[in-house]
């Protein structure tokens, strides 16, 4: 399992974090391989269905055998029991839709990255006081980049990443980076249900490469 700082470094280097879930194990693995081929080295797999745990276990196996550089994180973790289960499975980092103090205590002690979803300064302060270093601004489409601009100076020691509503366009990504985020979460705007349904892996790879290049250009 990766250390907190190493996980942060990998996510920040690529400047974006792809996230997805698919009930089909073979499609979940195929998408993981596609993202790896596109240059991605950290992925969030969301725990949103009954198949998530078994799929994740298989993805860890494939990752270990074929993609040793890939960090595989788990998202939509909402309670300590889930965190403990996925920790034993080998998840490299954990992401929640909200801040859960028990999860923070458990993972910070294990030196594993925990990125809780926060949408108020109160939640961000609570997370920071619990030892969290990486904040997921969620939902990003509701908060907007102006929120990030307004709070940036209050939290100089935290790293922020919006998830939800971030488009793959230059304007959308650039607006967020200019506001002060260090990475952007990319879900259905990058890996849509339609693309997954039809197994359009070339489309995913091409679009992922384009977004990575776009972020590199924006950050120069």
Question: What descriptive keywords fit this protein?
Answer:
220 residues, alpha/beta, globular, Aldolase_TIM, 11 helices, 4-stranded parallel β-sheet, single chain, 3-stranded parallel β-sheet
Structural description of this entry:
The chain has 220 residues and is an alpha/beta fold. The chain has eleven helices and nine strands. The longest helix has 18 residues, at 201-218. The model has no long low-confidence stretch (mean pLDDT 97). This is 2-dehydro-3-deoxyphosphogluconate aldolase / (4S)-4-hydroxy-2-oxoglutarate aldolase.
Radius of gyration: 16 Å
Global shape:
globular
- Number of H/I helices: 11
* Weakly predicted, low-confidence segments: none
How are the strands ordered across the major sheet? 3-2-1-9
Beta content comes to 15-25%
Query: What number is the mean pLDDT?
Result: 97
Distance between the termini: 31 Å
| Share of helix, binned | 40-55%
**Topology as a string of helices (H) and strands (E):** HEHEHEHEHEEHEHHEHEHH
- Largest sheet entry: 4 strands, parallel
Structural class: alpha/beta
Number of strands: 9
